[in-house]
């Protein structure tokens, strides 16, 4: 799927027909520079709880950024569609008659109801159940009941669904942005592409989705989850101690050299992305059948020794702002914001196309047991985020800064892994995540007037 910019149907890029001028100052913008000190590693806890900051996030972090929508395997034939969110905006992603994948705001241009209420399916058009306005797979308004009731100036061509400004995919993962001037997707991903390839590019045939989408709700701010997946190996031995015991052959947990594994942590200074990974060869927590499936000699030739020994182990990563992944078992997820105190987690399992049905099933079940909604690792993480959020609204609690100082000064180009890296046990990618967040929060987005 080629990148698309400035679509011809109604879009925020070109100002849809009938758009009204929103008065300057209707939104109050907060300066957050003093709330995130990425140099000293201190973060103001209010960034997780304040409703005004959350509304500003929707305008200045989510609206301008490339956001994950889904996998191309979810759209196999003409008319296939699924629904999702970009920030809190409801989205339809569909495959048109021309084979193009498009994304639209899931809101009728008449009175604003959703035109599609299903999670996924196959259709020829989208019809609003309120008054019957109907849109085709390209987002064009194709039918208006009692159209004779409108005057001669009414033109259905002016009232199509609002389309995203840009849409593209990276090795099967579909992203979109409302920002017409955003860098193209490969440029936005920057140095993170190398680390993503550790799970997206193992198979020359690409990847497929297995097992559908798992969805659950958590009490907690979306940034807590996104930051952890970018930076936090530090919690593993403490938070997941019982899970590690269950998975170890002895039942006593991993050996010391594995539990205290060496490793590296990457962060992309421009994009805000982060990834971490151990470099011990036995740090590969996956189903035995899957481990036996891989030809590590082939993977070394395809991806290089450093990738197989590093990012292809039991690592973690976040593509800013809210897409995260676990490369070894193909678990990908998005942290949908639902206000400052709540998020929805949507998780997929993506696997190599060449895997046999038996290997696919082994990995699917492994993911359910570890990182499904009630997985032994996932439950630990959700409990931590909810615990942090549950007390963060207290007056004194909310005024005490959080410490992200681990690894300050360890950032460097190590000559082995691309980009800026630090030690595995480090907050470097977390500091970078919040630095990028603060930069966007204090920068007027493309949709804001200069004097706003």
From TrEMBL:
Gene3D superfamilies: Naphthalene 1,2-dioxygenase Alpha Subunit, Chain A, domain 1 (3.90.380.10), Rieske [2Fe-2S] iron-sulphur domain (2.102.10.10)
GO MF entries: 2 iron, 2 sulfur cluster binding; dioxygenase activity; iron ion binding; monooxygenase activity; oxidoreductase activity, acting on paired donors, with incorporation or reduction of molecular oxygen
Assigned keywords, A-Z: 2Fe-2S, Aromatic hydrocarbons catabolism, Dioxygenase, Iron, Iron-sulfur, Metal-binding, NAD, Oxidoreductase
Location of the region described as Disordered in the Swiss-Prot/TrEMBL record: 1-24
InterPro entries the record matches: RHO_NdoB-like_C, Rieske_2Fe-2S, Rieske_2Fe-2S_sf, Ring_hydroxy_dOase_asu_C_dom, Rng_hydr_dOase-A
Stored CDD domains: RHO_alpha_C_NDO-like (cd08881)
Top-level taxon of origin: Bacteria
SUPFAM superfamilies per record: Bet v1-like, ISP domain
Domain Rieske per the UniProt entry, residue ranges: 66-164
A Pfam family that the UniProt record links to this protein: Rieske
Tagged with keyword ATP-binding: no
Sequence similarity: Belongs to the bacterial ring-hydroxylating dioxygenase alpha subunit family.
The protein, known as: Aromatic ring-hydroxylating dioxygenase subunit alpha
Organism classification: Bacteria, Bacillati, Actinomycetota, Actinomycetes, Micrococcales
């Amino acid at each position: 799927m080629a990148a698309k910019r400035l679509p011809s149907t109604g879009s925020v890029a070109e100002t849809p027909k009938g758009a009204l001028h929103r008065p300057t100052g209707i939104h109050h913008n907060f300066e957050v520079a003093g709330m995130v000190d990425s140099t000293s590693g201190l973060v103001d806890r209010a960034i997780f709880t304040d409703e005004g900051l959350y509304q500003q996030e929707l305008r200045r972090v989510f609206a301008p950024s490339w956001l994950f929508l889904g996998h191309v395997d979810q759209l196999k034939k003409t008319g296939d569609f699924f629904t999702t969110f970009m920030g809190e905006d409801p989205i339809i992603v569909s495959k048109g008659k021309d084979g193009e994948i498009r994304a639209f705001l899931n809101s009728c241009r008449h009175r604003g109801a959703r035109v599609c209420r299903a999670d996924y399916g196959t259709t020829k058009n989208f019809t609003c159940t309120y008054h019957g306005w109907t849109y085709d797979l390209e987002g064009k308004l194709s039918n208006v009941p009692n159209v004779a009731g409108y005057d001669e100036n009414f033109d259905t061509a002016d009232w199509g669904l609002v389309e995203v400004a840009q849409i593209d995919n990276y090795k099967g993962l579909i992203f979109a942005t409302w920002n017409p001037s955003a860098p193209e997707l490969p440029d936005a991903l920057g140095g993170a592409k190398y680390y993503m390839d550790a799970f997206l590019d193992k198979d020359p045939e690409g990847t497929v989705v297995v097992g559908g989408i798992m969805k659950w709700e958590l009490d907690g701010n979306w940034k807590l989850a996104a930051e952890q997946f970018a930076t936090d190996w530090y919690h593993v031995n403490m938070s997941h101690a019982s899970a590690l015991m269950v998975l170890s052959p002895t039942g006593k947990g991993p050996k010391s050299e594995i539990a205290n594994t060496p490793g590296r942590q990457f962060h992309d200074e421009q994009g805000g992305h982060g990834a971490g990974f151990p470099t011990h060869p036995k740090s590969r927590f996956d189903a035995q059948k899957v481990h036996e499936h891989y030809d590590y000699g082939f993977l070394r030739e395809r991806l290089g020794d450093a990738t197989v020994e590093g990012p292809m182990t039991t690592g973690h990563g976040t593509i800013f702002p809210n897409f995260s992944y676990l490369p070894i078992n193909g678990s990908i997820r998005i942290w949908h914001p639902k206000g400052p105190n709540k998020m929805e987690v949507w998780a997929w399992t993506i696997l190599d196309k060449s895997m046999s049905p038996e290997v696919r099933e082994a990995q699917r079940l492994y993911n359910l047991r570890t990182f499904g909604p009630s997985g032994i690792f996932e439950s630990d993480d959700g409990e931590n985020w909810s615990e942090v959020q549950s007390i963060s609204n207290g007056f004194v609690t909310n005024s005490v800064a959080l410490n992200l100082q681990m690894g300050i000064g360890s950032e460097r180009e190590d000559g082995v892994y691309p980009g800026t890296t630090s030690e595995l046990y480090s907050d470097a990618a977390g500091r970078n995540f919040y630095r990028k967040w603060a930069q966007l929060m204090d920068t007027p987005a493309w949709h804001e007037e200069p004097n706003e």
